[in-house]
């Protein structure tokens, strides 16, 4: 019997005031900056761009490492050849990363504009000036 009375008192504020318990969670998350007005496409774009930034940083580190190995090879032709190949491959990788960054941002921008989130204007929305 006491269980029912206690549960009634615990649930009464939610039913009497029609309070959604998720509202307080959203308020708490809003203070942390976790709640945003971004669309899923914008979130995906941010995630992909972040991944591409990290991969680009890895490529730069590879280039620096290969340059260091080349400089410390002491004339060893095998080490120089290996370092040169690493630098060439890292440069090709950097070009691929840059191209994928451009492609991702272009496609996502077109998706956002197609959905209408981007605020782009269509020819029908452009006002026609009065004649005369």
- Number of H- or I-type helical stretches: 4
Spans of at least 5 consecutive residues with low confidence: none
> Oligomer, anyone?
single chain
* Main β-sheet description: none
Task: Give the end-to-end Cα distance, rounded to a whole number of Å.
Answer: 85 Å
What helical percentage do the residues reach? over 70%
Tell me the structural class: mainly alpha
Secondary structure: number of strands: 0
Query: What percent of residues are in strands?
Result: under 5%
User: What average pLDDT do the residues reach?
Assistant: 76
In N-to-C order, the SSE pattern is HHHH
- The global form is elongated
What is the rounded Rg? 28 Å
Report on the structure:
This protein is an all-alpha fold. It has a domain at 40-116. 74% of the residues lie in helices and 0% in strands. The chain is built from 4 helices and no strands. The chain has helices spanning 2-16, 21-32, 40-71, 77-115. It is elongated, with a radius of gyration of 28 Å. The termini are far apart.
Give me a quick take on this structure.
By secondary structure, the protein is mainly alpha-helical. Helix content is 74%, strand content 0%. It has a domain at 40-116.
Keywords:
4 helices, 132 residues, 0% strand, mainly alpha
Question: How do the helices and strands line up, and which of them pair or pack?
Answer:
Elements: H1 2-16, H2 21-32, H3 40-71, H4 77-115
Helix pairs in contact: 3-4
